[in-house]
Amino acid sequence: METLPAQLAAITNATLPDGSLVDVEIAGDTVVSVSPASSEGRRDAADHPRSTGPTLDLSGFLLLTAPAEPHAHLDKALSWDLIDPPMGDLGLAIDSWKRYSAGMTVDDIADRARRQALAMLANGTTAIRCHVDILQGDQPLRGVQALVRVREELKGLLDLELTALAGPTVPSEHVLAALDLGVDLVGGAPHLADDPDADLRRLLDIATDRGIGVDMHTDESLNGALTMRTLAAVVRDWPAERPVTAGHCVRLGTLERAELAEVIAEIVASDIGIVTLPITNLYLQGWEHPVATPRGLTAVRELLHAGARLAAGADNVRDPFNPVGRSDALETASLLVTAGHLTLDEAYTAVSDGARSVLSLPTAGVAVGAKAELLAVRGDTLSQVIGEASGDRYVVHGGRLVAHSEVTRRIALPALDPTTGQPTVPATESLLETR
């Protein structure tokens, strides 16, 4: 097993999205210098008088701000094959999850959550906000206990923040008990309640009493409740240290232009961070419309134009709510380009700087004074990196190299006709090794 360096002092020969080749110096968890690489395109540790630790040569790699996942369900992750649920219906997904979760143990949940978090870390995600269910039955806090354990186990490798996901039937005392165990934020899905506004206000009152922020599943359907306006009105005067986040927001993508402009203005005025979740919402929404199927995305372009804080996440990964997913923020960014019509820069910002803003995390990336939360992917341009999503990656968290992945491919070489020099069939047994 490879031992990764405890702390990096410098990164050399890294390519940035603008094409420049740079060296980066790191002190502790902070970037302290960004300078052009040498004219030959190579610089080593001897050229860094302040470097007193390991130096990472990133020749051939694009260096980016590490992704942050603003909306995960680690307690549900990797359960699809265990449950074998019906496809394509939110209500049936909820029902199948409730039946399965009744028999889960704390260890079961922790094992899947840990595997999922480490898979995300390997792909570059160094901060995760996880919504953890408050379960039914006589042990409703099993998921919370599991995730608190995993958070402690992974301390130093990634930042894990927990949100109590309280459905409409979850008693308020169970939410309070989850907060007492160490959950950071209040969450729920008020649009599923018989009285959405009443359930939303109940959860906001709990957060107010505790002086903490909220992250709500909001209006996750193509029609029906629009609780966003109530959320924006109630939190308008909340202090900045109590962040407010709304995830999904699918209904925004269905509103007529005039109403949409009004609601987005209210979102911006209340400084609500919006999280779009393309893979799960594209999967779950629109099954009842077999012709001209509507796409289950929030109004990402209009939100950006209005100056709203926009993040993007993967949401569910291989559970009853989404049978697929690669635990990779580059997959989310790619979907924002193809389904959301964002630019490459906008899409990657949504999974990195935008996500960090919504999560109230310090600024990170390749800039002096920024936190050294970094992802290096083999490639030369952002288009190549998002498009190919090479598995060759280095992941830096808090200035430490916490993950390094390499992929090797061996491809058969064609046999050449000795007379014509043209390829013949079959191919030779010789293999061309590529990375």
TrEMBL record:
Residues 40-50 have a biased composition (Basic and acidic residues). Signal peptide: none annotated. InterPro entries: Amidohydro_3 (IPR013108), Metal-dep_hydrolase_composite (IPR011059), Metal_Hydrolase (IPR032466), Metallo-hydrolase_Enzymes (IPR052349). Residues 33-53 are annotated as: Disordered. One of its GO terms (molecular function) is hydrolase activity, acting on carbon-nitrogen (but not peptide) bonds, in cyclic amidines. Residues 108-381 form the Amidohydrolase domain. This is Amidohydrolase family protein. It comes from Herbiconiux sp. A18JL235.
